[in-house]
Amino acid sequence: MKIFDLLANGKQPVITTKLEAVYNVLRENIVSGKLEPGTRLIIKKIAQDLGVSEIPVREAIRMLEAQNLVTMTPHAGAQVATFDLDDIREVTDIRSLLEGYAARTAIPFIGDEAIADLEMCIEEMERCIHTEDNVNFGILNRKFHQKIYEHSPLKRLYRMIYEMWDGSERTRAVFSLSKRRPQESVQEHKAILKAIKEHDGDTVEKLIRDHRQRVGSILIDHLKKK
Description:
This protein has 226 residues and is mainly α. It has two domains: 18-80, Arc Repressor Mutant, subunit A (Orthogonal Bundle); 85-225, GntR ligand-binding domain-like (Four Helix Bundle (Hemerythrin (Met), subunit A), Up-down Bundle). It has helices at residues 18-31, 43-50, 54-66, 85-106, 112-131, 134-149, 155-167, 174-177, 181-197, 201-225, and strands spanning 70-73, 77-80. Residues 16-83 form the HTH gntR-type domain.
C-alpha cells in the first residue's frame, strides 16, 4: 500500500503533509472495510508500507482513536474499532426514515440535469463492479443519494442526514464484506431512479427505506458470524 495509491472519484487527493496522507489512507481503508474490525495496526509495518517514519503513523492513529475508528488495548496496541450492533440498528432506523422522507420531498425539484447525474453515477458504479473497486463504489453510492436529498426543500433535514452520514460512514464496509451487495445495490438504485422519473413519491420513499434497512441487516448479519 503506497501513500498516494488511494484515489477518490478517480482523482488524487490533495496532500499537504505526511500526517494527512497517512491519516487519509488509514481512515479510508477502515471506513471502506479493507481493514476489518479488530485488525491490529502495527505501526512499524504501516510506516514501512507507506514509506514514512513512525511519527506520522502514531499521530494518525491517535486522530483515528479520537474519532472512535481505532481503539487502544493494553498489550495489544492499536486495533480497528469494532462495530456496536445496537448503534447500527438505531442509526439504520433513523437514516431509513429521514432519507426516505427526504427523497419523497425532493422529487418535484429533480430535473433532467439531476436525472442525468444519477444515471452517470449508476454507470460508474457498474464499472467499479467490473474492476472490483469497492472503495470508489462506496463513494459513488454516497454521491447518488446525496444528489437526491440535496434537492429536498427541507434544508435542515438534509443537514441532519449529512451529519448522520459522517457519523456512520463505516457502513460503506458492507460493499467489501458482502460480495453480492454491490450488484444488489445497483439494481436497487435503478429501481429508485425509475420511481423518481415516474414522480412516484410513495414508491421512492419505500425503496429508499428498504435500501437503507437492507444495508444495516447485511452488516449486522456479517458481524454476528464473526
